[in-house]
Each structure stands twice: as structure tokens, then as C-alpha cells.
């Protein structure tokens, strides 16, 4: 079966790792590591995994976790900025943190908040925490997010960066069957070149991309 990179569409693909149940391919152009589409979970099984998540706004530990993205991004925003939390999940929390800081927020999640009207507006910032590793079509989705950003706007992402090949098989992140795309710093730098973005890594697992 012909396989191209789901981020950059390059056909220059090689095997990165073969596990017991899935293969992991790597793109030699943008350096994304990904699970081939025919090994993804059906949508109903994917949602069943998310339904087990117990994140909620009243959990101080969860807020501290989200703070790794919230703190550096909030420091870069003008007062009263308008944002979108993409992939908010069953217990939206990051959007509340930004609202508490004086910013207005919209949320979108294909399973829990499928409000298509969010794509009719533009935003000063967009967040996606522990989301991009779930995207079957990351190139299409990231381009859609960037299209909704105003010039100078920020796309803030939280996701663990891909482990080296020799340690990849023991990496806990690949054990989640809903994780299908894995980004490295080089992949984010490719995004910066492709879409004319300034790329900053303010914390572990966090990247900020500013639209020039």
C-alpha cells in the first residue's frame, strides 16, 4: 500500500520501529514518525479510550501540568486576547485558565465539542495540549489551525518529542493506541520553514509557533 507522510505528503518514507502490534514509519523530509493509517483505531474505539480520561478543572495537578504551556504563552499575549482550545477533551480546563487570566476562549473537540462555527472566526492564539499525537492527518489540521490565526498570533502545542530509535521501543508514549504521530524538534523547525513561523521551545514537551 502506497504511504506518504501525513504531515508533509512526502513519499520518502522508511521504517523507524516495528512493535508487536504496530509499525512506526519516519519521513526523511520533515522527520515525523507516524503509525500507518491502516493501523489506526476506528473512531468508536478511539473515543472509548478518551472516555476513560479523568481530567477536570478542579484538579490542581492537572492545572500544574497544563501550566507548562499556559505560563509561557500567557506571558506573550496582549490583554483580552481571543483564543481557541483545539482538542479540549471531555473536561476542558486550559480554556478556563485563560479565561481566568482575562482572555476570551472558544473550544473545539471532534468528539466532545464539535462546534463547527469556531472555524468561521480568527484568533490571537490557539492551543492544543496532548492533541497532535492523536491526529491522523496532522498536515491538514495544523494548516487549518494556522489559517485561523491572525498575523502575529500564537499556536501553542504540548506533546512529547519523539525518542531516538534505540529507545523508541521502550517509550511509554507509544503504548497508547490513540497516539499515531510523533514530532521532533526538527519536525517543528520544518513547520516553521514551511509556514513562515517563529519557533520557540519554552519548556519540555512545549513548542510555541508564532505566525509572522
TrEMBL record:
What is this protein identified as? Class I SAM-dependent methyltransferase
**Gene3D superfamilies registered for this protein in UniProt:** Vaccinia Virus protein VP39
Name the UniProt key words of this record, in alphabetical order: Methyltransferase, Transferase
Q: Could you tell me which species this protein originates from?
A: Halomonas eurihalina
Matches recorded under Pfam families: Methyltransf_23 (PF13489)
**Origin: domain of life:** Bacteria
Molecular function via GO: methyltransferase activity
Transferase: present as a keyword of the record?
A: yes
Amino acid at each position: 500500500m502506497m504511504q506518504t507522510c501525513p504531515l508533509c505528503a512526502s513519499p520518502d518514507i522508511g521504517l523507524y520501529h516495528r512493535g508487536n502490534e504496530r509499525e512506526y514509519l519516519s519521513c526523511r523530509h520533515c522527520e515525523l514518525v507516524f503509525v500507518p493509517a491502516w493501523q489506526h483505531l476506528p473512531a468508536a474505539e478511539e473515543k472509548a479510550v478518551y472516555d476513560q480520561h479523568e481530567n477536570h478543572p478542579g484538579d490542581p495537578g492537572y492545572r500544574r501540568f497544563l501550566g507548562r504551556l499556559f505560563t509561557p504563552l500567557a506571558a506573550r499575549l496582549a490583554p483580552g486576547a481571543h483564543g481557541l482550545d483545539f482538542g479540549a477533551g471531555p473536561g476542558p480546563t486550559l480554556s478556563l485558565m485563560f479565561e481566568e487570566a482575562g482572555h476570551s476562549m472558544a473550544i473545539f473537540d471532534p468528539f466532545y465539542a464539535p462546534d463547527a462555527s469556531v472555524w468561521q472566526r480568527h484568533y490571537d492564539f490557539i492551543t492544543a495540549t496532548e492533541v497532535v499525537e492523536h491526529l491522523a492527518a496532522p498536515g491538514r489540521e495544523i494548516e487549518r489551525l494556522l489559517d485561523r490565526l491572525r498575523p502575529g498570533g500564537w499556536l501553542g502545542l504540548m506533546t512529547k518529542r519523539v525518542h531516538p530509535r534505540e529507545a523508541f521501543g521502550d517509550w511509554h508514549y507509544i503504548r497508547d493506541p490513540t497516539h499515531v504521530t510523533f514530532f521532533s524538534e526538527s519536525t517543528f523547525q520544518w513547520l516553521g520553514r514551511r509556514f513562515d513561523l517563529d519557533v520557540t521551545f519554552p519548556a519540555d514537551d512545549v513548542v510555541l509557533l508564532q505566525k509572522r
